[in-house]
Amino acid sequence: MRDPEALCRHVSQVLVEALCTKGAIRLSGQRAAVANKVASALLANFRQEAALEKEAERLAEAHIQKTPTVDRYKVVQLIKRRLAEERDFAL
Question: Which of 14, 31, 68, 70 has the fewest other C-beta atoms within 10 Å?
Answer without folding.
Answer: 68
